[in-house]
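Lab notebook: predicted structure, single chain.

Context: the supervisor wants predicted structures on file for every construct in the current expression panel, including those that have not yet been purified. This is the next one on the list. No modifications to the sequence; it matches the entry in the shared construct table.
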Amino acid sequence: MKFLKEFKEFAVKGNMMDMAIGIIIGAAFNKVIDVMVKKVFMPPLSLMTDGLEFQDKRYILREAVYNADGDSEIKEVAIEYGMLFETFLDFLIVGMTVFIVVKAMNRLKDKAQDPKNEIVKTPKDIELLSQLTELMEEQNALLKDKR
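Prediction complete. Output recorded below exactly as produced.
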């Protein structure tokens, strides 16, 4: 019973929901990036390289052997480095996109945490901490003057 109670607390606190939302958004984001790489970035790269399809690039270690009927007796063995290139490009795009989003979010967070900034509303806890800091600095200045 204690285990079920702990699980219920875990689920209700939002940890599980936050994780589920993150996974769902991450999966959707992955699909967007996949389409962006394959349908937006790769065609111009392929055009610049005279119609070269990166996903088809490979280094053949052993050619396939076919019998008289055209059926494969021995399968081709190849290192498909084109897919690696596409995946690496995908990684770079995801990394750059995440970097830009995090940088923008940090900029907004910094503005929100600056109590002197009138444009963005400062959270109440940051505002109170700022007021406490100012009061402590005033009090310390008064104590120094008395000495």
